Amino acid sequence: MARKNECIAMLLAGGQGSRLGILTKKIAKPAVPFGGKYRIIDFPLSNCVNSGIHTVGVLTQYQPLELNDYIGNGEPWDLDRTDGGVHILSPYQQIEGTEWYKGTANAIYQNINFIDKYDPEYVAILSGDHIYKMDYGEMLAFHKEKEAACTIAMLEVDWEEASRFGLMIVNDDGTIAEFEEKPANPRSNKASMGVYIFTWKKLRQYLIDDEAKEGSSNDFGKDVIPTMHNAGEKMVAYPFKGYWRDVGTIDSLWTANMDLISPEAEINLDDPTWKIYARSPSAPPQYISSHARVRNSMVAEGCNIEGDVDFSVLFANVTVEEGAVVRDSIVMPGSIIKKGAIVQYAIVAENATIGENAQVGAREQDCEKGEWGITVIGENVTINDKEKVPAKSMISEKEEA
Amino acid sequence: MRANNVLGIIHAQSYGPNANGELTSIRTSASVPFGGRYRMIDFPLSDMVNAGMTQVGIITETNFQSLVDHVGSGRPWDLARKREGMFILPPYNTSSAMIGHETRLSSLYSISDFLNKSRQEYVLMTDTNTLYNINYRDLFKFHDEKGADITIVYKHGKAPALSDLMMFAIGDDKRINEISISNGGDAGVETNYSFNIILMRKSLLEYLVRNAIAHNYTSFERDVIQANLPNLKVYGYPITGYSAMIDSLKTYYKASLDLLHPENRKALFDPSKPIDTKICDNVPATYGLDAKVSNSLIADGCVIEGTVENSILFRDVKVERGAVIKNSIIMQGSVVSTNSTLNAVITDKNAVITPNKNLSGDESYPIFISKGTTV
């Protein structure tokens, strides 16, 4: 048995993220690049370390290669430890056969032995698809103070948007009276953030019971939490204030990136007391030439900019040649925007090439109504010289025959 | 010879009175910041790792706190290893011989134990006031092909103003026929001067050093290399590609601005021979509404609202609205406030230029603002 841990974290990173389209064709959603040098998973991982949680199990299933490679031994997050550290937990073969993770609860169920090894009092269940900075330590203190079986982090969202979320109706004492999953007419604007802390002894039993139950979808939101609630366990809502975004769609991913360069940015990544850690490439500083014009943008190391960059997020080692324009766009590592090309309202994935004088994406005012949207250029795609890629299209790599 | 049969020895302190001028008054020459995110030691250290060398000792003398902080366990260079890896070799006194690291010779003598217990048969020594990105394997091959006892990397050009500088007369076969030693008096003279990258068998180095110490000699260049020139086959390996030797604040300034030329950057930051450095987890650089940046190198964590031209900004530099920075080198964590103008200025780390200041040096004589100073 390992040294006893008060609280360990289990990070659900197996999701495909199909709403991100070609961006998640070869990588799991948590591995999607974000914010110039990060990947989505850097946020929950850094939050764990900054919160004092040093044992993290990362549950992977869909396209785990790049994610496994990225996490490696956990060194960028100080999670390469003798005691605890980060562990990749993939489905494995057992005596009774091999099972994929059937649902979020089943994923944790299949790793009960891993959790038991650390003999924790509490387990935090996190997901790998949100951008936020949060002290799980404060939430844990709240959970202990309330003597709850389950604490769910909650955020007040705009009433107009409330119907997109899983909502909670909360009593004055903080206990949860009722759950509503994406209701048409919301009675509450308190949304679940997908961050849970459970008292492990309780959760352990409910996971075993849920597994035995016929017809259960083995999901936290659909099965385990309602069952616990109906059984009269103490469920409380932990109020979180601050920036939190689900980046599960192309539009929300684009918007959250743009939030970083907004003068009224609600999320500050440049905070020495709450750093977001990432595995960084080894690249020299960015070079901005005398022909370049870079404004309102975030630019990572190794970039070589000779063109115009405005309201954009450029990842490491991006080249923007002379006369090229990148506007309101996200360009992921290693991509090249050649001379005279115009990239607008687009997400260009890793190692893509936009040919000379090509046009990618368009402004809303230049499109017919209903035809506008963010354009996505997939990994390793080459757009030919002078080619025009209209708004809202998705171009992915041609399959090798 | 195989690269993992070569032991690396890096002198963290370059010897000589005016090695890097103001920048080294608080740190070793190895930990002088360079090129926006690097320290001088990153270049030889990365080259050694890129060549496939697996064991490196770093000889330190004084002021090595910043160096230890920078290299840590050696992890960024994959040198944090159970077997071999990176070793910091601070000075120590033995009861029999009170020898610290005052000179190149005595420092080599004081690491006798380290040399002795290393399994490598060859030693490659470098200094930390030099900039280059060469493939040491080519040097090893040259040494083997020539059947050399000692190979020294040299550069043809104007001699820097350094003491104990070896200058060579070299034959067509690259054999060094004559060595003269300058103490700064030959600065500017066109010559073949030593880049102090020296390769030889470990056993030969141990013998030469022991012998020199036994005779109470003090100079590695004069008493070890020059004195043994008639007995040994000493060859010169010419450095190609971009290189520079820093002998003053002025040459530091010039070498820094050399990076604004793409061909120099390409030579120094060749992606097939990457230069690694300590990771600091800064956010990417952000450019504001009024940012105007031209012909400059900008590191992570910078926040730019003003104008930057022909300059190098290290990590976490803040340039406020209306501030203008030209032909300058601004080190990590410095702040240039609203409506201040800098021209030909080098600020050390964490300097603060308050609003409405106007500082102007000359390209031949840049103004230096020391670490943590508020102007």
Main sheet characteristics of chain A: 7 strands, mixed
Query: Biggest interface pair, residues each?
Result: A-B, 36 and 40 residues
Note the overall shape of chain A.
Answer: globular
How many helical elements of chain A?
Answer: 8
Oligomeric status: heterodimer
> What portion of residues of chain B belong to β-strands?
25-35%
What's the total helix number of chain B? Answer: 9
> What would the average pLDDT of chain A be, to the nearest integer?
91
Describe the structure.
- The complex is a heterodimer of chains A (401) and B (375).
- In chain A, strand 11 and strand 12 (176-181) form a beta hairpin.
- In chain A, 19% of the residues lie in helices and 28% in strands.
- Chain A starts with 6 loop residues before the first strand and ends in a 6-residue tail after the last strand.
- By secondary structure, chain A is of the alpha/beta class.
- With 375 residues, chain B is of the alpha/beta class.
- Chain B folds into 2 domains: 3-268, Alpha-Beta Complex (Spore Coat Polysaccharide Biosynthesis Protein SpsA, Chain A); 286-369, UDP N-Acetylglucosamine Acyltransferase, domain 1 (3 Solenoid).
- Chain B contains 9 helices and 28 strands.
- In chain B, strands 1, 4, 5, 6, 8, 9, 10, 11 and 12 form a 9-stranded mixed β-sheet that branches.
- In chain B, a hairpin with a 5-residue loop joins strand 9 (165-170) and strand 10 (176-182).
- In chain B, helix 3 (104-110) crosses helix 6 (202-214).
- Chain B starts with 5 loop residues before the first strand and ends in a 6-residue tail after the last strand.
- The model of chain B has no long low-confidence stretch (mean pLDDT 90).
- At the A-B interface, strand 16, strand 17, strand 18 and strand 21 of A face helix 9, strand 14, strand 15, strand 16 and strand 19 of B.
- Strand 18 (297-299) of chain A pairs antiparallel with strand 14 (285-287) of chain B, so a sheet runs across the interface.
